[in-house]
Design brief:
39% of the residues lie in helices and 25% in strands. It is α+β, with helices and mostly antiparallel strands. It has one domain: Beta-Lactamase. Strands 3-2-1-6-5-4 form a six-stranded antiparallel β-sheet, with helices on both faces. A hairpin with a 7-residue loop joins strand 2 and strand 3. The relative contact order is 0.18. The mean pLDDT is 92.
């Protein structure tokens, strides 16, 4: 199957799951499950959400699929996850061994994408994906992951 076709199918499935998910938490787990299952290079998929009231500001691991990570809480000034949440910008790292911000979770991880999740214009968390393949996240992947983060952000807004 062509990658663009698979991405279109996954995007349509995310849209359908968003409409059927009873809660944002259910949707986040569903997004993780679907991306991990259908996107073959997505070896770890998870959401980190800003912990309400945490000082200093902290990302806490939420829904995820993949190996357990030692990084269940990440300060905003640490790692690629912290950088994405602090800047509000998507970060794609083609080779994590060359990025000093990378917090090693798995020796197999070669590349990573982190996309902020916005609620009412503010960063509320992020969708983090690791791959065992270098440069696994092209423009189509970035568009898909950003779409997933946007759909989750809208669901979170509706639940406020």
């Amino acid at each position: 199957m062509h990658v663009a076709t698979r991405i279109d199918e996954v995007r349509n499935e995310i849209t359908a799951r968003a409409q059927g998910a009873p809660t944002a938490k259910d949707l986040m787990q569903s997004v993780c499950d679907l991306l991990h299952e259908r996107m073959l290079k997505y070896n770890w998929v998870g959401f980190y959400m800003l912990e309400p009231g945490a000082q200093p500001p902290m990302l806490a691991l939420g829904a995820f699929v993949g190996a357990m990570t030692p990084h269940t809480r990440i300060p905003l000034n640490q790692g690629i996850c912290g950088a994405a949440a602090s800047s509000g910008k998507t970060i794609v790292v083609d080779d994590v061994s060359k990025d000093i911000r990378y917090l090693a979770c798995s020796l197999e991880t070669k590349s990573e994408i982190v996309v902020p999740v916005f609620v009412a214009g503010e960063v509320a968390g992020e969708l983090d994906i690791d791959s065992h393949f270098s440069a696994a996240f092209g423009a189509e992947d970035q568009a898909l992951v950003q779409y997933c983060a946007q759909v989750v952000g809208k669901k979170l807004e509706k639940s406020q």
